[in-house]
Amino acid sequence: MFRLAVTTLRYRTAAFFAIFVAVLLGGALLSAAGGLLETGLRLNAPPQRLAAAPIVVTGDPAYHPPNGSGSAAFPERHRVEAALVTELAHTPGVGKAVADRSFPAVLSTSQAGELAGHAWTSAGLTPYRLVAGQAPRGGQVVVDERLAGATRPGQRVTIVVGGEPREFVVAGVAVAQHQVDVPAVFFADADVPAGVDAIGVFPAGGTSARDLAKRLELPAGVKAYTGDDRGVAEFDGIATSLPLIIMAGVFGGMVAVVMALVVSATIGLSVRQRRRELALLRASGATPRQVARMVIAETMVVGVLGLVLGLLCGRIAGSWIFGMLADGGVVPPQLRFDQGPLPFAGAAVLTFAVLRITVGFAAARASRIRPIQALAEAAVPNVALSRVRILIGLVFAGATVAIALSTPFMGPANAAAIGGPAALTGSIAVAVLAPLVIRRALLPRITRVVEKRGTGGVLAVINLRVRAVQFGAVLVPITIATAIAIGNIYSQSTQQKAAEDAFTNILSGDVVITSTAGGVPASLTEAARSFAGVTAVSELVRSKGWIEEPYDTSHTSDAWPLLGLSGPVYKGKVTKGSLGRLTGDTIAIPPGMAKKLKVDVGSELGVRLGDGALVRLKVVALAEGPSGYESLLLPARLLAAHTTSGLPSQLLLTTDKSRAALRTDLSKWPGTSISGRSVLADGLDTGLGVDAWIGYLLAAIAVAYTAIASINTIAVAVLDRRREFGLQRLTGSTRREVSRMLGLEGLLIAALGLLAGLVTAAFTVVPIAGATRGWPIPSGPAWILPAWVAVVLLLVLPTTAITGRIAMRAKPMDALSSPVG
Fold first, then answer.
1. Residue 56 DSSP code
2. Which residues form the signal peptide (predicted)?
């Protein structure tokens, strides 16, 4: 049987090529997902500016809730006490300990807004070497060679520090001894802001760095890193593996499910088209077991070849996807992509299992073929579905409806997690019930329109009705892709728009000042109060934090949005207290949270801020916010002091509508710009970054599988109809008429797939829109929908036309005598 299976491959090239490509893509993407998982578990980020220090001590960049449930990255730099530098320097086995402090410092000739300022004493942590001049003293700087340009020691330069432009004398020019992405500006110790971000520890001679790191006595919340783990102390965002692990899990699971559906449809179509030859095998003495073994053997040979090539492409796919995530800001670009043997082994096992289980079902159907019945049904395939298959389809359809009905009651925070699976369950329901969807649900409603197109239209409708099973194999990938692509894209855009609207609508003001030089300085805030036409001014600071005393169990690993204000711009209803008292160590919280925590105006809360500091704050007001998007309100100066930059990110002005403020000269503050409130949401962290990229990756998978599955399945189905086309031409039809019939069939199946997919996507998008925006109207780019329709039509119609011409290349009599399709 194995030899017969290998021989069969020569005559079923199109069908087996479809399986080969689907498995190849699945193996490559699964190994890529495994690489993302391994990267998230390892979190290796080779240090750059701190590379010379064998041990780096810094605050734990991950927040660990008191109840031990998960972890989350601190949104700000988690600094350490300055006294720890002296303690570590006197620890046995330590040669020296060097403090490091990073802060925004922008050279007037540079456009960068990175944390580029450091103390000259920390230059040895890279190390940097002077190539001109000397070490800086008060009022002097040493600049990176890449920033110096034509600047020479002794010249004056303007550097924006703390949002304020200041003049410094260039004392020297230095060059890093290895690659450092962000060019540095080094200051004298007296000119560096207070605080310590990290401590570079150099072991004494003969002391192992790893052993010393384990022996260091560190305060709670402070950790020592060695090797590639030192990058955690240098780069933001490398704190917890949870986002990458979630992404890898969802991504890999979706690839496996979609691959199973596509491969199943392709194998099922191939088996159904071979009922005649399988029946002949049974009539000639082959047992059901032998027929099943033959189907399994031929499919597994092709599948294993595709899997091997897919694994070889897995590294390319993984690096490409990881590069897109880094470019999109989902992961730090300094994080190293790790893809060892385990991701490939896992991908191989999972792909092989999916393929073997899928082909097992097809082989079981093949083994049940009765010789005489199969020969009688070869021309007109049976469309009847088994009760078990109908039951499975109805279960998934019911699950889709249940998910859609429950999503609007879950609130914005859980809407995507609850409503997202509806696209997948709905797609599975359509895939299982595809023949019934074609014959009973969709086709009768468009029959009359198509039949008016003449004989070709009548034949197209008849073919769709009697070949519902074969056309179902084409319908499935189009439906799955449409549901996943449209559902994920519009779900993400709807949630993003809802979060941005909730933030911007709760704030009054119509003019926004933004700084790209580290933040808005206090001098600009004071000056803005005297701008022409300005009636109110408020600094805006955004961060995240947690309520720990009393402990808030509703926000554990996910943080509360923190909003810092210094003026009367908050539009939410204040049910008790006054936001005018929001100064010093105070806070305003939502009434619902106050009730849950059993606190009131005048109570004290222990709040863990974004830099890890636990502060005691007095409740001065209960302020409502948009349902599901409430924030904790703090004084801007208090919150800014616990951010990485130490300054407000924006300045919000309320004007008398004369727009005079928009014409204000801001040249005194380099890097600042003034515009309308449309930029208010720029840089807003809605917490959807990872979710959005999961959605986009799933949409990309859907597009790729649709292209492959549609092209291959259409090719297989059309080429198998050579005898039918030959008979039509012998009875008087021309090639043009047959091509027109095929075109109408392709247009119909594309329309049916799009319609089924859009209906399925609606079960995800509409409930999420209702939960996040309050009404069932999604938001997002309008061009996405027509663009997707164009993609599907460009896949289906040209493929149908080309394969139709190939199928009709032979003479009619030769086509009738063709042994295989």
1. E
2. none
Residues 92 and 202 occupy one common structural domain = yes
- Residues 167 and 228 reside in one and the same domain: yes
Rounded CA-CA distance 441/213 in Å is 67
* Cβ 729 vs Cβ 812: under 8 Å: yes
- Could you report the per-residue pLDDT of 686-716, keeping only the tens digit for each? 555 566 666 677 677 767 766 777 777 777 7
158 - beta bridge partners?
167
Q: How far apart are CA 131 and CA 122, in angstroms?
A: 17
Q: Same domain for 486 and 582? A: no
Contacts of 245 (CB under 8 A, 6+ apart): 37, 40, 41
Distance (Å, whole) CA 304 – CA 309: 9
Residue whose C-alpha is closest to residue 113's, from 636, 638, 649, 677:
649
Asked whether the predicted pLDDT for residue 591 surpasses 80, the reply is: yes
Task: Find the Cα–Cα–Cα–Cα dihedral 414, 419, 425, 426, rounded to 10°.
Answer: 180
- CA dist., res. 709 & res. 266, Å (int): 8
The pTM (predicted TM-score) of the whole model is: 0.79
Residue 50 lies in a domain: no
pLDDT in tens, 427-445: 788 878 777 766 665 566 5
Nearest Cα residue to 162 out of 680, 669, 815, 771: 669
Which residue segment(s) compose the domain that 126 sits in?
A: 55-233
Q: What is the Cα–Cα distance from 338 to 251, expressed in whole angstroms?
A: 17
Which of 258, 283, 278, 350 is CA-nearest to residue 310? 350
pLDDT at 685: 64
Report how many domains make up the chain.
4
pLDDT of residue 450: 63
Asked if residue 122 has pLDDT above 90, the reply is yes
Which residues does residue 633 pair with via DSSP β-bridges, in sequence order? 563, 588
Q: Which class for 475: exposed (0-12), middle (13-18), buried (19 or more C-beta within 10 A)?
A: buried
Long-range contacts of residues 449-458, Cβ cutoff 8 Å, at least 24 apart: 450/744, 450/748, 453/744, 455/737, 455/741, 456/737, 456/740, 456/741, 456/743, 456/744, 457/744
